[in-house]
Design a protein that fits this description.
Length: 434
C-alpha cells in the first residue's frame, strides 16, 4: 500500500523534483478545461495538485474531475516550485486514488466561505473540525496542555489519575449527576479535590491531573458546560501564595509557548497574542467590593459571592489577569484554610481574566479537628466524608492547590465568543450528542 510520506506543511519549494505522497480531504476542485486544480487539505494546511489535462493520464483526469468535495484522496506526485501557487509549490500528480467518497450536499461548508450557526457546526462537528479555524483552536489547546505538563514536570510534579465515579459529593453540593452503580447509587465527580488532598498524606508531595469534571448545573451561558476538563494541582508544604505563583507562571508560560510554536494557527485565527506579565495583580475581596461600590453600581454586602455583573465591571477596570484573594470563609468550601488571626477570612483565591474566572484555589485545612468543624459549619455530615477524613488523623502535611478550567483558558487566550468552540464535543443541558 502507498503510504503518506509528507504532510502539506512539510513541503518546501526547495524540494522541487522530489517525489511525495500526500493524503487528506478534497478542499476544492477548480476545472478550467486545459488545467484542473485539486486542493488537498490535511491537518497541516493546503497543497495544490495541478493536473494538465491534455498531458495527464486520462483515467487520472477523470478521477480528479469526478471526485466530490471532502472525499479522502491519496496523491502521489512530484513537487514543482511555483511562486504563484499557495506556499510556493504545487504537486504534479502521477497517481490520484479516492480512498473514501463524500456524499453531496455537505452539512456545512468546511472552507469557511459559507457561514454556519454554532448548533449546525456542533451537529456536524466532524466536518466543522475540518475548517482550518476550528482545527487551529485544538492544535493550540494541545500546545497549552503540553506547556502545562512541561511546567509541572520541570517543577517535580507527579501526574496522577483520580476516580470519576464517586460515592459522595466533593463539595457537598447538589449539582451532581447520579448514576446507577450496581446495587448502589454513585455520582460523577465534581472535582478531584478530595483525592488530591488524600494523596498529600501519602508523601507524593506534588501532584497534578488533567481530566474531566462534571457539574449538574442548569447553566446556559457562553462560558459554562456540564462536562469540562480541569487542570488540577496539589502541593505539600505550601501555602496559597506559593500555588498562586505556580499558577500565574504556568498560565504565562502557556501563552509564551503557544506564541512560539503556533504562529500559523494564531495567524489563521487572526490572534495577536499578548503574553501576560507576572506577577499578576492581587486584589482582596474587600478591595473588590470597595471598587465596585465607588463606581456607583448597586452595592454588595460583605459575605456575598461576587456576581457576574460586578465581575465584568472589575475585569473592564483592571484589564488584565488578576487574583481575587482573602475571601470570606463563609463563601469558600469547607476545606479552605481560614486565617488564624481572622477566621472570618480564608486563604482562598480565584484567578480572573477580565472576562471571566479561570481558576480557583486555596491553602487547605490540614488539621483534623478544624476540618470537622468546618464541615459542620457548612451544614454537612462528617460521616459522609469518612474516607476523606481518615488520612487527616494519621499525619497530613500542610498543603495548597488549585483547579484551572482548560477550555476557559483557551477561550480567553484566543478571544473565542463561546466556550463550546474550545471543546471538541461539548456537553451542556441540551447537548448529549455527538
Amino acid at each position: 500500500m502507498i503510504l503518506r510520506t509528507h504532510y502539506s506543511g512539510e513541503i518546501r519549494p526547495e524540494m522541487d523534483g522530489s517525489e511525495v505522497t500526500l493524503a487528506g480531504h478534497v478542499h476544492e476542485i477548480r476545472d478550467l478545461g486545459g488545467i484542473c486544480f485539486l486542493v488537498l487539505r490535511d491537518r497541516e494546511g493546503l497543497a495544490q495538485v495541478t493536473v494538465l489535462t491534455k498531458r495527464a493520464d486520462r483515467k487520472l483526469v477523470e478521477t480528479v474531475r469526478g471526485v466530490s468535495r471532502e472525499s479522502v484522496v491519496l496523491v502521489r506526485g512530484r513537487v514543482k516550485a511555483e511562486p504563484k501557487a499557495p506556499n510556493g509549490f504545487e504537486i504534479l500528480p502521477e497517481a490520484v486514488e479516492v480512498l473514501s467518497r463524500a456524499d453531496s450536499p455537505l452539512p456545512l461548508d468546511p472552507t469557511g466561505k459559507v457561514g454556519a450557526e454554532l448548533d449546525t457546526r456542533l451537529d456536524a462537528r466532524f466536518l466543522d473540525l475540518r475548517r482550518p479555524a476550528s482545527m487551529a483552536v485544538f492544535k493550540i489547546e494541545s500546545a497549552v496542555m503540553r506547556s502545562l505538563r512541561n511546567t509541572f514536570y520541570e517543577k517535580g510534579f507527579i501526574e496522577v489519575c483520580t476516580p470519576k465515579i464517586v460515592a459522595t459529593a466533593t463539595e457537598g453540593g447538589t449539582a451532581l449527576f447520579p448514576i446507577s452503580y450496581f446495587e448502589r447509587e454513585a455520582f460523577l465527580n465534581q472535582s478531584p479535590q478530595l483525592y488530591k488532598q488524600i494523596l498529600m498524606a501519602t508523601g507524593l508531595d506534588r501532584v497534578f491531573e488533567i481530566g474531566p469534571i462534571f457539574r449538574a448545573e442548569e447553566h446556559d451561558t457562553r462560558r459554562h458546560l456540564n462536562e469540562a476538563i480541569s487542570v488540577d494541582v496539589e502541593v505539600s508544604y505550601a501555602d496559597h501564595e506559593d500555588v498562586m505563583s505556580l499558577l500565574e507562571n504556568a498560565v504565562s508560560s502557556a501563552y509564551r509557548y503557544v506564541s512560539e510554536i503556533c504562529e500559523k494557527e494564531l495567524q489563521i485565527l487572526g490572534v495577536d497574542l499578548d503574553i501576560p506579565k507576572t506577577p499578576f495583580r492581587r486584589i482582596t475581596y474587600t478591595e473588590a467590593l470597595e471598587m465596585a461600590s465607588e463606581s456607583g453600581r448597586k452595592s454588595m454586602e460583605w459575605g456575598d459571592d461576587i456576581d457576574t455583573e460586578t465581575e465584568h465591571y472589575l475585569g473592564s477596570l483592571i484589564g488584565e489577569h488578576y487574583f481575587l484573594t482573602d475571601w470570606p470563609s463563609s463563601v469558600k468550601p469547607y476545606y479552605t484554610q481560614p486565617y488564624e488571626d481572622k477566621p472570618e477570612i480564608c486563604k482562598g483565591f480565584d484567578l480572573m481574566h477580565p472576562s471571566m474566572e479561570l481558576a480557583s484555589g486555596a491553602q487547605r485545612v490540614h488539621d483534623y479537628e478544624l476540618l470537622i468543624s468546618r464541615i459542620k459549619e457548612k451544614g454537612l455530615n462528617p460521616e459522609s466524608f469518612e474516607f476523606y477524613l481518615k488520612p487527616f488523623r494519621y499525619g497530613m502535611p500542610p498543603h495548597a492547590g488549585w483547579g484551572l478550567g482548560l477550555a476557559r483558558l483557551v477561550q480567553t487566550m484566543l478571544g473565542l465568543e463561546n466556550i463550546r468552540d474550545a471543546v471538541l464535543f461539548p456537553r451542556d443541558r441540551r447537548r448529549l450528542v455527538p
